[in-house]
Recover the amino acids of this structure.
DNA sequence: GATAATATCTGATATATTCCGCATTTTCCC
DNA sequence: GGGAAAATGCGGAATATATCAGATATTATC
């Protein structure tokens, strides 16, 4: 007998694959009712089986009209490269090194010129009003966040 | 089944876009009757979905002959729009308002989905490890820097 | 059997929607 | 000029929905 988490996971993947766009939108309470468990059980299933590393993007909205939306996403090689870059820049990175990384991504056509310029501006020393080493730490955080946004196509 | 606020929002946007000048004038009570909700529900929809950050201007008149008028703010000049947004967000901006601005720029096709996502991640509260109001101030600076990168074509 | 990993649920918290009850403004009529 | 009708605005309560930390239970591994 499998556990309720496996059953819910299987159900969600089934309805996702039957959807041409590989995207589903659910209400926690409805799924919980259907499988006779508490609503936060759905959170557990989603947080453990539908992660970015496994190729899913989860978005949600609280309150009346709330929902949970799960999308399938792709492009593992690029994701891996970006993960390596993110790991490289922890826990802080200088502006010069950051710009070099962005130039590399531009050369490999993983980002556009506009995106490069946007990111360069976001992490410029004039944008971040802190002393070193805090400025380099904040720069690493912002850089990582932006790179994370590039890992997958939707 | 979606909630009544989303339905009213969609209806208002539809009649606005079918209008060449992107301006509509409504009576609260008429819309409320049409969608079978209380009149103040219209206030809620307008106050949350038709904000300045999202590119709308709302005017109204109470009393007999009262109305609500909603206009789409149009900007012929992209650089001017971005300058106005940069001015709007000084000296600090909340994450919600920033996201609304980016959605507006996305709607007007001034930025791509990827660029929007990149910027949303850069200014997310999880990226900026500060207490309020400093976090909103840093957010404004990063946002301004990124918007400045978009003012002109490369 | 001890420990680690995973699963399930509780209770608190965050966010969004809907409506109530009243305030305010404007127009019309006597 | 005053009162009634026609209109919108708003603070707050109630309700609807999701997330999350942590406690506890179950299962897996050694």
């Amino acid at each position: 007998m499998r556990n309720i988490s496996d059953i819910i996971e299987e159900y969600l993947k089934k309805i996702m694959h039957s959807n041409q766009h590989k995207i589903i939108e659910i209400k926690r309470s409805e799924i919980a009712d259907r499988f006779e468990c508490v609503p936060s059980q759905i959170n557990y299933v989603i947080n453990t089986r539908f992660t970015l590393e496994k190729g899913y993007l989860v978005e949600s909205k609280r309150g009346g009209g709330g929902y949970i939306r799960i999308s399938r996403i792709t492009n593992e090689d690029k994701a891996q490269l970006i993960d390596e870059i993110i790991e490289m820049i922890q826990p802080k990175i200088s502006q010069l090194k950051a710009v070099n990384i962005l130039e590399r991504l531009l050369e490999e056509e993983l980002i556009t010129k506009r995106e490069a310029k946007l990111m360069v501006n976001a992490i410029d020393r004039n944008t971040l009003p802190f002393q070193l080493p805090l400025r380099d730490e904040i720069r690493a955080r912002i850089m990582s966040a932006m790179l994370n946004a590039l890992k997958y196509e939707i």
Summary: The radius of gyration of chain A is 20 Å. Chain A touches chain B at residues 64-65, 113-115, 117-122, 124, 126-129, 138, 141-142, 144-146, 148-150, 154 (CB under 8 Å). Residues 3-5, 37-38, 40-41, 44, 48, 61-66 of chain A lie near DNA strand C (CB under 10 Å from a C1'). The first strand of chain A starts at residue 23 and ends at 26.
